[in-house]
Design brief:
Blueprint (H helix, E strand, L loop, with lengths): L1 H18 L13 H16 L2 H23 L5 E2 L2 E2 H22 L2 H8 L3 H4 L5 H29 L10 H25 L3 H17 L12 H8 L2 H14 L8 H28 L6
Antiparallel strand pairs: 1-2
Helix pairs in contact: 2-7, 3-4, 3-7, 4-7, 4-8, 4-9, 4-11, 7-8, 8-11, 8-12, 11-12
Subcellular location: Cell inner membrane; Membrane
GO molecular function: ABC-type transporter activity
Protein name: Transport permease protein
């Protein structure tokens, strides 16, 4: 009887070994699609629960910029790049709203987790660093697109503004690249920041000035050569000018597809480099796992 019990026990252990893999051996190979999708939807639902604040309020704020500047600078039929001032400034305001809100969304998730002590909820699930970054950045880009659509709708209804699209590829490419660049930058800031004041400082002293001083309300040919050089060193300038080219067919960086193509490639390369840098910092665990 003892031998039978021992044999049965040994058989149970063997079956357990077959059913349960060794500790630490990953069971999800390739892309964890369910985990990635769950993180993306969680981030989408987070900002949609307060959509009045995260989508519609930025649209109203951006529309106020349009009202103020068209009233102050658009009088007496002022024309810029061959179009009325309101039509000229509208694409830049849409792009500015998209980029600022992409930054705001991606810079919140990790920082809020660190501040509230819930960062473990993002680091422990069986998703890779790349999937974590992709899910948060994709949600930030989604918010940027929603904000851009809301702003465009408001401006389409505004008298004196024509949002006719001349080059759809430029609108899509520069819109997505601008949102992605700020989403990646915001994600990197959320890793570095230790409190919301750090995040606000980056937003107020870097993101906002670069957005406003990027040719949103003017053409850089009106500036002195020194400030033109500074403007061309600003990556926001290429995003906004390329986006404007998509609507007007005219911009500070060129008036043909060929002329703008170089800027399109440049912003794509910039996003690849920024993405690799952000991934390397996230993978290192700096300020997250240490």
């Amino acid at each position: 009887m003892g031998k039978a019990a021992s044999a049965e026990f040994a058989g149970t252990q063997n079956r357990a070994k077959r059913q349960f893999p060794p500790k630490g051996e990953p069971q999800i190979t390739g892309i964890n699609r369910i985990g990635l999708w769950s993180l993306y939807i969680k981030e989408i639902r987070r900002f949609l629960k307060v959509q009045t604040q995260t989508v519609w309020a930025p649209a109203v704020t951006t529309l106020l910029f349009l009202v103020i500047f068209t009233v102050a600078l658009g009088r007496e039929g002022r024309v810029v790049l061959g179009v009325p001032f309101g039509t000229f400034v509208a694409p830049g305001l849409i792009m500015m709203g998209m980029m600022q809100n992409a930054f705001a969304n991606s810079s919140f998730s990790l920082l809020a987790g660190k501040m509230q002590g819930t960062i473990i909820d993002l680091l422990m699930p069986p998703i890779s660093n790349a999937e974590l970054m992709l899910g948060i950045v994709a949600a930030a880009v989604t918010r940027a697109v929603l904000v851009g659509g809301a702003v465009a709708l408001a401006m389409w209804l505004y008298p004196g503004v024509d949002l006719h699209v001349a080059h759809p590829w430029a609108v899509i490419w520069f819109g997505l690249m601008g949102a992605t660049m700020l989403a990646l930058f915001g994600f990197l800031v959320s890793i570095w920041a230790e409190k919301f004041d750090h995040n606000s400082a980056i937003s107020n002293f870097i993101v906002a000035p670069l957005s406003l001083l990027s040719g949103t309300f003017y053409v850089i040919s009106n500036l002195s050569p020194f400030f033109q050089t500074i403007s061309r060193a600003n990556p926001f300038f290429y995003m906004i000018s390329g986006f404007r080219f998509g609507f007007l067919g005219e911009s500070d960086i060129g008036n043909t597809n060929t002329a703008v193509l170089g800027a399109a490639i440049g912003v794509g390369v910039l996003n690849v480099v920024l993405g690799l840098l952000t991934y390397a910092v996230l993978k290192s665990g700096w300020k997250l796992k240490s």
